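A quick aside before the break. I want you to see a complete sequence-to-structure record at least once, exactly as it would be stored in a machine-readable document. Don't worry about memorizing anything.
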Amino acid sequence: MHKDKRIRIITGHYGSGKTEFAVNYVLELAKSGGKVAIADLDIVNPYFRSREKTELLEEKGVRVIASSLKGINTDVPALSAAINAPLEDKLYDLVLDVGGDPVGARVLGRYYNFFSDKDDYDMFLVVNANRPETQTVEAVISFIKSIEHASRLKITGLINNTHLLKSTTLEDVMRGQKLVEEVAETTGLEVKYVSVIESLADKLPSDIQGEIIPIKMYMREEWMS
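That is the input. The structure line, written in tokens, reads:
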């Protein structure tokens, strides 16, 4: 995780669990004690936004940057100029939680100049094989191309986050793993992470492609399924 590029862009189709992954990822980064920030650039989906966990994240030392308008429930496509600071400051590890479709990815164009150094960013695609839009190799590759076209940036790695929330089984995860490995073989991309609920993490094969990241479900309340 700490070997990833300084700026980590997290994208994925609606329902993929990209924000849950982004929150878990940035909290793990914060354990290093360095300067860490997360920017909520998802201007498409008003639900399960990383900014909803501002208090938790800030308690753990994570700087949270969201809409330039105050209020968690304010749903407007307004981006804060505060994001420029961690983009420019090389001492920051920055996570960008980006909207999971070409419209959402287009917002990255506003910051394109910050990504001119290809050695300074990674863009990871979160894949949930249970989502109808990303159930086949062809569909995932088509989605990759649409995100790359809209953002003018390249996907650099894949994340298997195949889940059915708390009902996720080992079989679900491994089916998703097969999918992302086939996508990786076809595209030349690397499977970077296997994102899985904590109860299943130690049941995965030790030789699985990708670093295993046990996930706490921060974005869903206990009463949610």
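Two observations worth writing down. Residues 7-215 form a domain with the Rossmann fold fold (CATH 3.40.50.300). The longest strand covers residues 190-197. We'll return to this after the break.
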